[in-house]
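The protein record now logged underneath.
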Amino acid sequence: MTVVEPFGLNVRDQALEADVQAGLAAVEAGLLDATKSEVPFITEAAQHLVRAGGKRFRPLLVMLAAQFGDPYAPGVVPSAVVVELTHLATLYHDDVMDEADVRRGVASANARWDNSVAVLTGDFLFARASHILADLGPEAVRIQAEAFERLVTGQILETAGPRDGRDPVSHYLDVIAGKTGSLIAVSGRFGAMMSGADETVVNILTQYGERLGTAFQLADDVLDIASDSHESGKTPGTDLREGIPTLPVLRLRAQAAEHGSPDDLALVELLSGDLTDDARHAEALRLMRAHPALEQVRQDTVRYAEEARASLAPLPECFAKTALEELCGAVVHRVG
């Protein structure tokens, strides 16, 4: 029995699988409803990435976390729609910042239309998420606002770079805790909270989401280099081309600074140059795929996923807990 095909997540209980599948189907319907507008063009742009599909990782986490309370509670599905709408909105904005051409296997919104349409569509999705949140109560609004602040702060820190004297790796881990970990942590929190789970359970699933979110982003960093466009749904090496220093590049730079290997120094120089040239970009990808720094980040991914798994220990044994543990393995499996 499989909950979400891109992760190959197996659930050992038919009732749990039925609950999660029904919840995700309701989320999908909620996403389509939330992205409708009286203006047909806005509907087309807002549903562009919804209809392109995706892993629905955050809604899945909401559904699993809700199993520790009442999974049929009225706030569960709307809260999952909120986190996915917020995530989708950030993708529209990210693609503008990264000048990306492909997202989820289709043309990015900025490539299909233009940057202005992509930015405004992202804003529209944020507005719709806020509208749904208003019905979930002031505490939900506050939690989402704090997460969104962390998300934006992470993006700004990434753009600004580490301050003088700050370790670039530590800075980057702070960046992804904000950019990715914050919303995945909220997914676990909303699922537990909206289902009426005990506050201790809510806190555990929030911390679980935070750690799993870091592992998830590190897996994406690996995939940006190691995968082809069919596997990742976007153009390989996008971050390299845009000069965004993800963890594999930072690990490479640290190794080059410490040991001064001529090959490492040459690769650092290549990555620091103009990678808009296709030949140079292809060479940089080839060398990074063969470099030990990539394997280091694979191991970092495993470490954070294992920390997420360990954080679940106080929860009662049940099929939902097993599924959350296996979700850690599924994230790691993405990077090989």
User: Anything to note?
Assistant: Residues 1-6 have pLDDT under 50 and may be disordered. Residues 9 and 326 are 7 Å apart (CA to CA). The first helix runs from residue 14 to 34. The beta strands are 102-103, 106-107.
